[in-house]
């Protein structure tokens, strides 16, 4: 997984149809023999859904795209076809479902977006996302909450945790909007000024840290609520 | 013409078959007009009976009457050990599987085999009604069914000679029957309280796309439990000396409980009287509600679970569809209305609606419509056992299917050539608390140092919710051997064996087909002759000859109603015989007419 160059989703001109070997105008469907095409390994979730690579997505558009692609690839519509097409349909529909699931949830989407390898988006070392201070904070919070639960104040503990999570989530959503705004401003133009690039990078690091922090908060939430989980009946 | 795909609701208590015909839903009744088929099979020295005939032998000591076999479907003996005590027929542990002994034919029957007998009966119903052979089918299962239970249901279909195109979740099916998707967009809840299972699902419907948002349920909660709650109370007031363990006693009580339950939907109080066992009492709606309240509350646990999974509040649901006979109980409907305070859909017969939806899905799969798409989810998480007996989840529950998960495996000993993998389904932390789906081995690994092997295993859950496992050696690009040993249910070999066995019934199937064909032919001949007779005057058809033909028509019609294919064919040729002189005369007339330059009158040409 070395260097990747930034591709545009329309960059499919050289692809050939698996069936009739004709040149593909469209990545998903051959215009000549009308056969569905397997997703190429390097198509990311945005490409698969035919969406621009952006941190902020309109959920209506996303759902619309998902349904449109589902109508194309869902195995139900390829029941009576040859096994190759059934295979493509199964694999594509699986990846499509995965793509939708990831992009639908803003937090999963943000994490996925930050991990995408492209210029102007240097990878952030996962180990450096949380500082030692962050970890201390989290540990203290967990101990305090456990203490409250131990003396029977479950509801109070949960309310506090929930507030922590909500506050963090709204700040994540806010910074996603900011980053998206800044990036959509620089796109297409000549390279952004070093100043802007630095600021963007800082914001992204912060976002990455917040997402990681949220994950920890959620795992605390899971641990706290385990004893109260409804027992499986079967 | 597209092939008809039948929809089957294979229920715990009753089953049924439905089709889509010219855009209309039709539940296919038996020759006596009954739409439901009791999911009951009777084994006796005189043969195997299915449905009403089998149900009527419930108290016959010479017969083994198998009911609720769906509860055993795809499960191991230890899974069902507890409830076997509740069943009035023997279930034996054979190699860990719950099998039903059939001493009359010196064999053991599995739940899928029992299911296959019921499915065969429904298939025959459809074939007789359609006048053609039927192979493609959609079969419904509770949304909460795990992989093995779905697989077992599919196996049952195959044993019945059906090509199972889709295993469909019952609640989803219900929404399809209500025609949602054509105009009614929104978020709907399906509350399905059947005879033996409870399912709750949240469905989002947008422009013909059905999406199951969340599903949960209880495989051990249904109308039967409501009856049992009433019976348990009555057992306490039975006179001493009545042997409570006798199946006949329980059977009488069950019937009376069912009757009282239905009556209390109309009245506030009913008299209860079973003189044979000295039960004389009254039951008020209020008392019954009190007895069943714990069960009603139990249904709300999975309801809340699904709502919280989907992150939805009860008030955000646009409506609730009621499914299953037990939702006729007023208290159930009330509880649903209290919780959601949203419109409740109960116009469709709650006993038929699931089968109807299966027919709609069948219509979609037959390729005759592309306006609807069903996006389903997997009801349980799929994972593998890791160090310390912990389950590591690969595909979380409520993931839209089809879906795939890839996992990299390696060796941990030098020269290791085999890796064992244990696949699990369920939500619990520890492997042992979840359902074991399969154990399989990656074999033929090239011996090398520990940790050097790179075997990528792909777990696929297809559109039916059924698991498929493939392995690829990343170093060689070779696909790896995967040997799956089902932890319970039936192995592929057993299924193959059973399918082979079902070919032994092929003779029987062949006869059914012969019967259908001869009926179709006879009916065509009868209709054509009758039409001709109406239009012919005494000049060409003397009264004596007419009454002879009429007599033979009646005889043939009677034969068509019977089951004897040879008789139908014989009587058809007999009709042919008596109408031949007429046919010859008509032929001559038309030739004369043609020679005379006159055109043939319309009606005769039609005949």
Notes on the structure:
The complex is a heterodimer of chains A (234) and B (607). Chain A is mainly alpha-helical. Chain A has two domains: 1-104, Helix Hairpins (Orthogonal Bundle), CATH 1.10.287.110; 127-228. Chain A is 58% helix and 0% strand. Chain A contains seven helices and no strands. In chain A, helix 3 crosses helix 4 and helix 5 (132-150) runs parallel beside helix 7. The longest helix of chain A has 33 residues, at 154-186. The N and C termini of chain A lie far apart (45 Å). The model of chain A is unreliable at 1-13 and 227-234 (pLDDT under 50). Chain B is α+β, with helices and mostly antiparallel strands. Chain B folds into four domains: 1-178 and 349-372, 2-Layer Sandwich (Nucleotidyltransferase, domain 5), CATH 3.30.420.40; 180-347, ATPase, nucleotide binding domain (Nucleotidyltransferase, domain 5, 2-Layer Sandwich); 382-491, Sandwich (Substrate Binding Domain Of DNAk, Chain A, domain 1); 506-606, Up-down Bundle (Substrate Binding Domain Of Dnak, Chain:A, Domain 2). In chain B, 39% of the residues lie in helices and 27% in strands. Chain B is built from 15 helices and 29 strands. In chain B, a hairpin with a 3-residue loop joins strand 1 and strand 2 (14-21). The longest helix of chain B has 31 residues, at 565-595. The two termini of chain B are 26 Å apart.
- What name does CATH use for the topology of the largest domain in chain A? Helix Hairpins
Distance, first to last CA of chain A: 45 Å
- The parts of chain B where pLDDT drops under 50 for at least 5 residues are 486-490, 594-607
- What is the string of SSEs of chain A from the N terminus onward? HHHHHHH
CATH superfamily of the largest domain in chain A: DnaJ domain
């Amino acid at each position: 997984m070395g260097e990747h160059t930034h591709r545009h989703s329309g960059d499919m001109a050289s692809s050939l149809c698996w069936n009739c070997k004709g040149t593909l105008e469209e990545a998903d469907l051959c215009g000549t023999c009308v056969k569905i095409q397997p997703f190429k390994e390097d198509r990311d979730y945005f490409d698969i859904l035919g969406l621009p690579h952006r941190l902020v997505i309109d959920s209506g558009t996303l759902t619309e795209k998902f349904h449109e692609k589902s109508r194309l690839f869902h195995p139900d519509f390829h029941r009576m076809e040859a096994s190759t097409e059934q295979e493509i349909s199964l694999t594509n529909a699986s990846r499509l479902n995965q793509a939708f699931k990831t992009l639908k949830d803003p937090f999963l989407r943000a994490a996925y977006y930050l991990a995408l390898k492209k210029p102007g988006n240097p990878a952030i070392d996962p180990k450096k996302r949380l500082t030692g201070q962050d970890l201390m904070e989290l540990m203290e919070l967990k101990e305090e909450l456990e203490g409250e639960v131990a003396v029977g104040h479950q509801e109070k503990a949960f309310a506090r945790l929930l507030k922590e999570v909500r506050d963090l989530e709204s700040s994540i959503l806010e910074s996603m909007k900011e980053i998206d705004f800044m990036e959509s401003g620089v796109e297409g133009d000549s390279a952004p000024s070093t100043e802007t690039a630095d600021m963007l990078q800082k914001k992204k690091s912060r976002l990455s840290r917040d997402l990681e922090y949220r994950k920890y908060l959620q795992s605390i939430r899971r641990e706290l609520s385990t004893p109260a989980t409804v027992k499986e009946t079967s | 013409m597209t092939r008809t795909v039948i929809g089957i609701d294979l229920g715990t208590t009753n089953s049924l078959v439905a089709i889509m015909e010219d855009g209309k839903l039709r539940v296919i009744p038996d020759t006596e007009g009954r739409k439901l088929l009791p999911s009951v099979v009777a084994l006796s020295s005189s043969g195997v009976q299915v449905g009403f005939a089998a149900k009527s032998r419930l108290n016959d000591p010479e017969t083994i009457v198998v009911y609720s076999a769906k509860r055993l479907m795809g499960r191991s003996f230890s899974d069902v050990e507890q409830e076997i005590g509740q069943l009035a027929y023997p279930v034996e542990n054979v190699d860990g599987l719950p099998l039903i002994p059939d001493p009359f034919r010196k064999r053991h029957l599995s739940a899928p085999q029992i299911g296959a007998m019921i499915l065969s009966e429904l298939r025959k119903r459809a074939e007789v009604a359609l006048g053609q052979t039927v192979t493609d089918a959609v079969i419904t299962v509770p949304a909460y069914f795990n992989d093995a239970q779905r697989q077992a249901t599919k196996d049952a279909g195959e044993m019945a000679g059906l090509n199972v195109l889709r295993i469909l979740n019952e609640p989803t099916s219900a929404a399809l029957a209500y025609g949602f998707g054509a105009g009614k967009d929104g978020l709907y809840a399906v509350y399905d309280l059947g005879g033996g299972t409870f399912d709750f699902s949240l469905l989002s419907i947008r422009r013909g796309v059905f999406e199951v948002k969340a599903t949960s349920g209880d495989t051990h909660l249904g109308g039967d439990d409501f009856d049992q709650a009433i019976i348990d109370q009555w057992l306490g007031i039975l006179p001493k000396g009545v042997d409570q363990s006798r199946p006949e006693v329980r059977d009488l009580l069950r019937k009376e409980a069912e009757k009282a339950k239905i009556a209390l939907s109309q009245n506030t109080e009913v008299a209860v009287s079973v003189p044979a066992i000295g039960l004389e009492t009254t039951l008020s709606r209020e008392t019954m509600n009190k007895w069943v309240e714990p069960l009603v509350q139990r249904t709300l646990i999975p309801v809340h679970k699904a709502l919280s999974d989907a992150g939805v509040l009860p008030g955000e649901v646009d409506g609730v569809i009621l499914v299953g006979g037990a939702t006729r109980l007023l208290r159930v409907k009330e509880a649903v209305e209290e919780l959601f305070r949203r419109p409740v859909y109960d116009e469709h017969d709650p006993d038929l609606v699931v089968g109807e939806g299966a027919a709609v899905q069948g219509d979609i799969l037959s390729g005759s419509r592309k306006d609807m798409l069903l996006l389903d989810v997997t009801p349980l998480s799929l994972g593998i056992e890791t160090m310390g007996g912990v389950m590591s989840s690969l595909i979380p529950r409520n993931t839209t299917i089809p879906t795939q998960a890839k996992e990299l495996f390696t060796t941990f000993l030098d020269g290791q050539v085999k890796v064992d993998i244990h696949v699990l389904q369920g939500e619990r932390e520890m492997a042992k608390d979840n359902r074991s789906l399969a154990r399989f081995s990656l074999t033929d690994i090239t011996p090398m140092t520990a940790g050097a092997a790179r075997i990528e295993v792909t777990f696929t859950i297809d559109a039916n919710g059924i698991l498929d496992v493939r392995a690829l050696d990343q170093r060689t690009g070779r696909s790896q051997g995967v040997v799956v040993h089902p932890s319970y249910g039936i192995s592929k070999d057993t299924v193959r064996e059973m399918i082979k066995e079902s070919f032994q019934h092929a003779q029987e199937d062949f006869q059914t087909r012969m019967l259908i064909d001869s009926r179709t032919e006879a009916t065509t001949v009868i209709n054509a002759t009758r039409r001709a007779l109406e239009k012919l005057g005494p000049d060409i058809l003397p009264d004596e000859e007419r009454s002879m033909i009429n007599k033979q028509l009646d005889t043939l019609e009677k034969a068509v109603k019977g089951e004897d294919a040879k008789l139908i064919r014989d009587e058809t040729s007999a009709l042919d015989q008596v109408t031949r002189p007429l046919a010859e005369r008509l032929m001559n007339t038309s030739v004369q007419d043609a020679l005379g330059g006159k055109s043939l009158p319309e009606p005769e040409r039609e005949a």
